[in-house]
Amino acid sequence: MKNIVILISGGGSNMAAIVKAAQREGWVEKYGARVAAVISNKAEAPGLQFASAHGIVTEVLDHKAFPSREAFDAALAQLIDRYDNPGQPVLVLLAGFMRILTTGFVNRYAGRLVNIHPSLLPAFSGLHTHQRAIDAGCQVAGATVHLVTPELDHGPILAQAVVPVLSGDTADALRARVLTQEHLIYPQAIAGLLQKM
Predict the structure, then answer these.
(1) Model pLDDT for residues 7-30, shown as the tens digit of each residue
(2) pTM here?
(3) At the topology level of CATH, where does 2-196 sit?
(4) Domain coordinates of the chain in residue numbers?
């Protein structure tokens, strides 16, 4: 069985979209893959309740309990590695996980660490992507699913979705339109990866 571990920090709507797609599309039967655990760095993350209600193991690892980013990442890796199966290393998905990961952590999961970012990368890496797209006068915005590399919001692109930037758009309105596309392309991109594994 290929185990998928999803990392979240908040509501986990992308995690929920992946869990629903996995159940609806029968990933266990089709790919021999399942969402095995959802880990959050925040105990109050609402996404943990969704995961728990869907029979998925949840874990909390508070980054504030560690003296450094390296110490937190080392503990997080130990937690994730519990879901490795012989010959089937775990797939790690970032779904609104609001932590910048160390190079050591990223390299440990190279080729199987995936992120979704709310812009058409390479444009607007980092935060406040929707407002920055509006401020720049972009006619389109969107979302990108990509493999994670040590450079923030870079790495091979697995999928992108484009949405129009409308006249009078606010960052919140654009965010909502982009999010509906995120919920479609993230599960599709993961299914595509699983087909090749």
Answers:
(1) 999 999 999 999 999 999 999 999
(2) 0.96
(3) Rossmann fold (3.40.50)
(4) 2-196
